[in-house]
Amino acid sequence: MARPAQEPSSGIIKTCPLCEEQFECAQGRPGCWCETVVLERQTLAEIRAVAYGCVCPNCLSSFALRESVRRSGDGDGVDGSQAPAKAPPDIAVRSRGVSAVWAPVALGFLAGALLLGLGTGAASIGPASIIASLLAHIQVFHVSPPLSSVDDAILWQIRAPRVVLAALVGGMLAVAGSAYQGVFRNPLADPYLLGVAAGAGLGATLAIAYTAAGTDIGMLLPLAAFAGALIAVIAAYVLGRSAGGVRGTSTLILAGVIVALFMTAIQTFVQQQRSDTLRAVYSWILGGFGTADWHSVVVVVPYIAVSSVIILLHRRVLDVLSLGDEEAASLGIDVRRARLVIVLVATAGTAAAVAVSGLIGFVGIIIPHTIRLLVSPSYRAIVPLSLLAGAGFLILADALARTILSPAELPIGVVTAFFGAPFFAILLRTSRRTVM
Amino acid sequence: MVACGGSTPTTATSASSFPMSLTTAKGTVTIPHRPARIVSLSATATEDLYAVGAGTQVVAVDTYSTYPAQAPRTSLSGFKPNIEAIAKYQPDLVLAADDTDNLFEQLSKLQIPVLVEAPAADLNGVYGEINQIAQATGHSAQAASVVSGIKEQVNAIVRSVRPPAKPLKVYHELDQTYYSATSGTFIGQMYKLLGLQNIADAAPGGNDYPQLSAEYITSSDPDLIVLADTVCCGQSAATVATRPGWSAIRAVKTGAIVPVEDSIASQWGPRIVLLLQAVARAEKSVEGSTA
Q: I need a labelling partner for B91 at 20 to 30 A (CA). Which of A68, A271, A298, B97 fits?
């Protein structure tokens, strides 16, 4: 790589000066892994400036990644719809290798979670009868319905929409979380960063507190939550921009915090005025899929689909933004516009998810980090894999929430954090990659 | 737990033996003279006051005391009691459902006696509270007839329901996210009295108000559904029937859905008889159709 050999030897275990990961170095002799990495002079100078000695494969490939992003920056507009630019061949191979291994793993995880989610519940319905019942419903082989009418209603009217909705919400929160982390270059960013949660909470509280006694709240609650979430983020964005959002992202984050605090104060006031609605509000805030039906699935699918697709198309832009505002701007990206588009789209999707499921934490911040630590720091991997992993994770969490205390329900937020936190702690300890 | 013969130790003698000392959970409370300016921060206590004939002595009740209609409702809150606002009515007795924010101690500083009447655990608790409120307000004589009236009605209702060989299953709904109540609650005991089997009892112990899963409710196929969320959440037989998968439930198919006013199911005073009546009527119609 950058530095010539100093003493002839082979396969020495070295520690990378950048990430402290141990790697085997063949000291620049033929056959060393670093021979295949072709870097520009400018990049080499950059590495010399920050690292003394040999750099490990991971760090080196992330430099190569930056290089390829920088090269493709001019051609790759904000719409992100263009084909990836010419990356050094090895990098192309590397990123293809990543997805070649991890994409099937993530898909398998999601498929397994789907089956498990459909197969568990208070009513025991075996996998064989689920498949037979599915065939009977889509009328492929003229299978006679194997389930009693009650079991059939449970499976297809109660359990299936619940599983599907959990998948949609989980995928959306994880994708939105990765988008926020990329846009704000902040490892603590999650989908609720700019006040989505507080806004939705206020909207829901107002709807619950001020619907006339004796009326069914029905679709008014998700609508109010959705509107509240959007208003909160727009307010935060306007405030952040007017207070000098050009200076970077911290003003925007601070504006989000202020808006969230303000809305929470109003919500507390309303709750205190109408304490008879406390339990209903509390139950909504805890979040969950206890009353999921196909109707709510149909309502949120368009928002979540459009939102995730647009973020997926922007995954290379997120890579560029992660280099820093000035660097991204020098590569021909309209940083403010890109940030606005991604934030708005991620927020709309999150607001739709929150509207039908309440406030479910943990998924949006932890899933992207898990992918980052396990797979790659590039958003080209993080965004699509977060979508799959988030969906699978929330299906499993909901399955646990339904079964641990069966026939009672457990709030899903308890499950996501209780099982997710230890897993992530272990990952954080064992992984040698950096968090951001 | 039987509903009859639970005489309370407090004996009702003369109606005007003031100053009076009452033993409550908060210790001994002394009421110096017959109260003429009562403030009630508890909806159940308000009902009890009017039932024993102390209504004319009430000057203010809290926002949630919706019954009876003539009670002087104010914006006072029992949930976040404001001592100054309460004191402004110059009460000589304050009734509350619990000792929120040191209400008892705070009002004691102002020489205002407070009776904390916690939600009753069973019917005897209801009778005890009616008796105590009657004593504190100088209406012991009426209390005896009110209590015996409730007892007679409850016994008549319970006798009218023949316990079937296979008890009917009941699902009590507190809100449309399927919170329910087990037999460990007051309301659950009412179902027990009527010989019903409560589907919420299958929930793991320690939580008397569990949130059931829709799956469990539909698969346990209750014969009776009691809706205590008609006012708060606008639920009715019609909204229940439109829930996904619920049309397969026996109670929905036979129309054995009992809508009750939320406050009747959550304020355990004299009106508990109305709830028992409504549920017993539905129970008898279900049994009649299956017999």
A: A271
CB contact at 8 A, B217 and B179: no
Which of B77, B216, B244 is opposite residue A157, by nearest beta carbon?
A: B244
Residue of chain B nearest A150, judged by CA positions: B248
What is the widest separation between alpha-carbon atoms in chain B? 63
Q: Specify the pLDDT at position A414.
A: 87
- B239 vs A contacts (CB less than 8 Å): 216
Query: What are the tens digits of pLDDT across the range A129-185?
Result: 888 888 887 776 666 777 777 788 888 888 999 999 999 999 999 999 999 999 988
B253 to chain A: closest CA residue: A150
Q: CA of B287 to nearest chain A CA: how many angstroms apart?
A: 22
Residue A304 distance to chain B (closest CA, Å): 23
Query: Residue A150: which of B77, B219, B244 has the nearest Cβ?
Result: B219
Q: Residue B21, CB half-sphere, CA atoms under 13 Å: how many? A: 2
Ranges of residues in chain A with a pLDDT under 70 are: 1-11, 17-20, 26-38, 41-42, 44-53, 69-99, 140-143, 245-248, 432-436
Q: Give the pLDDT of residue B280.
A: 94
Q: Please tell me the distance in Å from A126's CA to the nearest CA on chain B.
A: 15
Q: Report the 10 Å Cβ neighbour count for A9.
A: 11
> Per the CB < 8 Å rule, is B218 touching A214?
no
| B77 interfaces chain A, CB cutoff of 8 Å | yes
Q: How far apart are CA B6 and CA B12, in angstroms?
A: 15
Contact list, B231 vs chain A (CB under 8 Å): 213-214
B75 in contact with chain A, both atoms CB, cutoff 8 A = no
B222-245 tens-digit pLDDT: 999 999 999 888 899 999 999 988
Residue B208 to chain A, least CA–CA distance (Å): 11
Per-window interface: B 207-236 vs A, CB < 8 A: 207, 210-216, 218-221, 230-236
The residues facing B224 across adjacent strands are: B170
| Whole-number Å distance between alpha carbons of A187 and A253 | 13
pLDDT exceeds 50 at position B92: yes
The 3 state secondary structure assigned to chain A is CCCCCCCCCCCEEEECCCCCCEEEECCCCCCCHHHHCCCCHHHHHHHHHHCCCCCCHHHHHHHHHHHHHHHHHCCCCCCCCCCCCCCCHHHHHHHHHHHHHHHHHHHHHHHHHHHHHHHCCCCCCCHHHHHHHHHHHHCCCCCCCCCCHHHHHHHHHHHHHHHHHHHHHHHHHHHHHHHHHHHHCCCCCCCCCCCHHHHHHHHHHHHHHHCCCCCCCCCHHHHHHHHHHHHHHHHHHHHHHHCCHHHCCHHHHHHHHHHHHHHHHHHHHHHHHCHHHHHHHHHHHHCCCCCCCHHHHHHHHHHHHHHHHHHHHCHHHHHHHCCCHHHHHHCCCCHHHHHHHHHHHHHHHHHHHHHHHCCCCCHHHHHHHHHHHHCCCCHHHHHHHHHHHHHHHHHHHHHHHHHCCCCECCCHHHHHHHHHHHHHHHHHHHCCCCCC
